[in-house]
Amino acid sequence: MKRYSSALVFLLVYVGISAQQDTISIAAKITENSNLISVNQEIIYYNNTILPLKKIKLLNWISAYKNRNTPLLSRTIQDRKNEMYFAKPQELGDTTELQIKIGSSDWAYISGDDENIFFPLSQELKPGERVKIALKYNLHVPDEKFTGYGIGDEKFSLKYFFIVPDYFEDENQKPKYYLNIEENQSPGNYWNIKFELPESYFAKSNLVQLQPNSFEGKLNKDPEFIISKEKTDQIITQVDGEKIEIGFGYFLTKTEKQNLEFYLPLQLHFIKNKTGKLPSKIFISEKFKKDEDFTGIDDLKFWKFHYKLFKDTEQTDLNYFSILSKAIIQRTVVFDKSLDHWLMNGLKTYLEIQYIDRYYKNRKLLGDLPNELKFFGMQPLKLMRISKLELSERYGLAYQYIVAQNLDQKISEPFDKLSNFNAATISHFETGSLFSFIAEKMGQENFDDFLKNYLTQYSGKPVDQKVFLDELSLASGYSSDFLERFIQQKNRVNFNLKRFTKTGDNFQVKVAKNTRQTIPFKIETEEKSGKKETYWFDTEDSKETVTYNIPQSNAEKIIINDGYIFPEKNFRDNYLYTEGFFSNRKRIKLKVFKDIPNPEYNEIYVNPRLSFNVYDKILFGLNFKNASLFERKFQYSLTPFFSSGTGQLAGSGSVAYSFQPADSFYRSLDFGISASHFHYDYDLTYQKIAGFIGINFAKDPRSDVRRNIGFTYNYLEKDLNPNNTNQTEYGKYNLWNLGYGYSDRSLIHEKSYNANFQWMEDFQKISSEFSYRWEFAKDKKISMRFFGGYFISNHTKNDLFDYGISRVSNYAFSYGLLGQSATSGLFAQQLIIAEGGFKSYLGTTADKWITSVNVDSHVWRWFNVYADAGVYKNKNHGAEFIWDSGVKVKVIPDFLEVYFPVQSSLGFEPGFKDYGQRIRFTLVLNFNAITSYFRRGWF
Question: Could you give the CA distance from residue 852 to residue 237 in angstroms, rounded to a whole number?
């Protein structure tokens, strides 16, 4: 009994200690036409840990802006933003002339260079005790273009700049760094802040304003301040007789303000009915608005075209509901952004889903775009499934998209480790969908009552994830029991609607799931008229197939978890028809445009294709494939062509499968076969059959580093010129290739490396290539490429397999050459940057070894200069040094570029009569390369 009494006393003491809040008083003076802020500050610091402290840690996060060696800079580079990397010294931020006084000690100067300031105490600070800390320092405020906080055009946006204690401090006192993820730095404290401002400047804050430029109060998040020459807007409204003040850190347009005066009371009333309480003051900064608005509803603008997806009133309504939801959820309890992000963002998204279900139930994902987008009077989007998807389905679709690439992350992953896409898809969408799923299962009112009780009971306290999940489990009748385990891992849950039988007035439906987690599911029956009936079922801790009884009700279709309401990996086995030929089968559907996949059908995409090469001329074809806008594990493609140049058939086809384990050292294991048949010269065809297996290794979703290893086999057979009587040509040959690839597509320092071992009956050769691209100034880059190749043995009959110097030999038909065998004319001038990579025509091939260096540097706008140098050796000849140089014009960077040679081993090339034939060009017609280019920085 004594032991339990002691434990109770300890618990009560700890709770009492944790309840102590620090007090921060600041007097800040801002100088006009300067980024300098002079600060006098006092902190009443409590030891809220369970152990005595020998030192105190304060956060000095303005030092995150001081140079290129901070975690903040690294993260901005990962996000493909280079403004801070190339910033001028006066645009950066830091702390100077920092003095500190602890208790009654003397003032002491300390360095303000670090984001975490540690200083020793003369005597230990015991749990629950406090100490007074006085500070004097100057802040040099950074430019706001880096993070949205700092100095702008006659405006200061201040957040995370003052020196404060770490609210989430524990006895380990680990360093904590600013990453611009809207982390909570020092919430829950009591603030008293007074600004001394130049005349005509005004201050606004999320703290309560006592008098002009003076603010005080307690917040569950960090305070922020907008200081500008003009007063920004505010709207005061009432909800259930309660006055609510909404302040804006920016100016509203007249139309925007009129719309908000109508929508804000409705939105706040809706949120209050879900959460139970509203703060009396809500502040929305320009950065917060940009970060938290409703994505995917902005007008579509490109070139001279402008398409409006949603009406201005709808945009205002959805954007500000999303913003208000986050602002209000943040004010209820204290969240640690790094660990509790999924709970905070999930509740915000839950409110969004419910709002859409109430007011935008029949609104489509693309809004009015299918009606607005027209070509020659036609509306092509109306032929696509994406035009028929509901706005509410966007949450499940985003999850499906990232899971299909095996680039998702677990819900509980620390927020700073999430990729930008997963920050939205996993932290917001997946979690919000789960809460909505549980709410529908337990009853909407029951979930809302639980949420109101929880937020009221723990108001102003640090959130405890386990307590939240345990109480939700009780409120839901244990239907949400699976969540605690679910959020801790990457999931590949799949419900399989296997078969049904009719028994009297019932359907006997067999359903299997691939996990032992006790996840409930929803079955719907749908009649031809569209009428639906809904049935919920709990599941056992088992993977066995279970039979469920549901009323027949003249249903035409049976569906599990329709509308992407639960984050499954595969919805293709969630539909069954009950009548006709396709009873207990999937229907087949032919489609023209690549689209969001419809899991209800086996879809075959039939697309007209046009291609071109010198020998087949224009190729007219049809492509049959199952690949949609979302990647699939099993993919096939068949493309028969009619050659207008020969009057014959040509074409290609492939079949591939990808293994994608949720957690493994590799992201995907891919294997497949392909075949192709085209002309490679006039009246000469080739046939190619290839097999491959490759491993793409797992990657950090925030990193641009990718690694892979692959093995390929190619069998090639080609027609030989009957007029060629020598016996040195290859009509049939086999190629084996083993390769490793590494790429780091980072913003400033871009690197790639690959190594290959290739062999066939008559040769074995190895090669390696290293490429490096450095952005040495904003939007100015220098590229370097190093190549080395060596024949281990070479007994070939001709130079077909030799290393190319200025032109590659496309003996594997793997390069996208428009003229495979062209030796003159425009198509002979196409350049592939491979092997030697020389732009001038210097020699032909190397049958022993070759080394080369290719350098390319930006000069002005679209113009670069380039230089190549190398040494190569042929059998029975000495090694030879060659070089060239010239100007490159980037018509479309990395995709269409033109090379004008100037000086080389041959001399001054513009003086040659055939100079026009010496100009080279690169052309990349690879849609995957283009989409990969624009995806960088997201995952």
Answer: 71
Burial 850-865 (b: 16+ CB within 10 A, else e): bbbebebbbeeeeebb
Residue entry with tokens 């197939």: 545
pLDDT at 6 over 50: no
**Structure confidence by residue, pLDDT tens digits, 259-305:** 999 999 999 999 999 999 999 999 999 999 999 999 999 998 887 88
Q: Under a CB-based contact definition with an 8 Å cutoff, are residues 564 and 397 in contact?
A: yes
pLDDT digits (tens, 9 = 90+) for 746-772: 999 999 999 999 999 999 999 999 999
Q: Output the six-digit token pair for 177.
A: 């760094």
**CA gap 278, 282 in Å, rounded:** 9
How is residue 104 written in tokens? 């009654």
Pairing relation of β-strands 164-165 and 53-59? Answer: antiparallel
Residue 610, H or E segment? strand 601-613
The strand pairing partners of 773, in sequence order, are 750, 783
Nearest to 854 by CA among 868, 866, 874, 865: 868
Q: Is the Cβ–Cβ distance between 711 and 738 less than 8 Å?
A: yes
* Rounded CA separation 689/675 (Å): 4
Q: Per-residue pLDDT for 15 more than 70?
A: no
Segment 187-224, tens digit of pLDDT: 889 999 999 999 889 999 999 999 999 999 998 899 99
Confidence of residue 1 (pLDDT cuts 50, 70, 90): very low
Among the listed residues 270, 286, 408, 413, the one whose alpha carbon sits nearest the alpha carbon of residue 350:
270
Instruction: Name residue 150's amino acid.
Output: G
Which residues, other chains included, contact 193 with Cβ-Cβ below 8 Å and sequence gap of 6+? 24, 25, 26, 27, 28, 205, 207, 214, 215, 216, 223, 225
Which strand (E) or helix (H) includes residue 624? Answer: strand 617-625
Distance between start and end Cα atoms, the chain: 56
pLDDT attached to residue 580: 78
Could you tell me the two tokens for 548?
């469920």
Tokens of 70: 């901070």
CB count, 10 Å around CB of 199? 6
Contacts (Cβ under 8 Å, ≥6 apart) of 466:
484
User: Vertex 256, ends 250 and 257: CA angle to 5°?
Assistant: 75
Q: How far is CA 608 from the centre of its chain?
A: 32
Q: How much is the average pLDDT of 580-607?
A: 88
- Could you give the C-alpha distances from 645 to 319, 453, 614, in angstroms and in order? 55, 75, 9
Q: Are 342 and 431 in contact (CB under 8 A)?
A: yes
Q: Look at residues 119, 143, 140 and name the one whose alpha carbon lies nearest to residue 131.
A: 119
Distance CA(58)–CA(332), nearest Å, equals: 25
C-beta separation of 534 from 610 below 8 A: no
Spatial separation of the C-alpha atoms in residues 798 and 794, rounded to whole Å: 10
- The phi-psi region of residue 685 (left if phi > 0; otherwise alpha if psi is between -120 and 50; otherwise beta) is beta
Name beta bridge partners: 546: 511
The SS3 call for residue 540 is coil
Contact predicate 703/714, CB 8 Å: no
How far are the Cα atoms of 358, 599, 601, 641, 654 from residue 626, in angstroms, in the given order? 36, 12, 11, 18, 11
Residues whose CB falls within 8 Å of the CB of residue 935, separated by 6 or more in sequence, listed in order: none
Q: How many CB atoms lie within 10 A of CB 729?
A: 12
User: How many CB atoms are located within 10 Å of the residue 494 CB?
Assistant: 16
**Model confidence pLDDT, tens digit, residues 519-559:** 999 999 988 888 899 999 999 999 999 999 998 778 889 99
β-bridge mates for residue 398, sequence order: none
Q: What are phi and psi of 273, to 5 degrees?
A: -65, -25
Distances (CA, A) of 836 to 356, 740, 850, 868, 919: 58, 19, 7, 9, 17
Q: In sequence order, what are the beta bridge partners of 771? A: 752, 785
HSE toward the beta carbon, residue 730, CA cutoff 13 A: 20
- Say what angle helices 444-457 and 254-275 make with each other, to 10 degrees: 90
The token pair at 771 is: 């490429």
Give strand pairing partners of 688. 676, 716
